[in-house]
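User: Run a structure prediction on this.
Assistant: Running it now.
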Amino acid sequence: MAAIDEALERLVWVAPHIGSPPGIEPTLGIKRIFVKRFPFSVYFIELPTRFRVLAFAHGKRRPFYWGDRL
């Protein structure tokens, strides 16, 4: 939980500098930040006043299983 909290806090500072992850259309505005020490990523979009988390995804299991959420 602490690693996820840290990733979400980091999201605020690095989100403007992150590009779209590989395999995702850049026009969708989806970005990814990695969770340190664990094989998970947080996929999110940046809204005008907040961030919307789309998925906490495992880096090796069922890639893009969350794609239906788009």
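Helices lie at 2-14.
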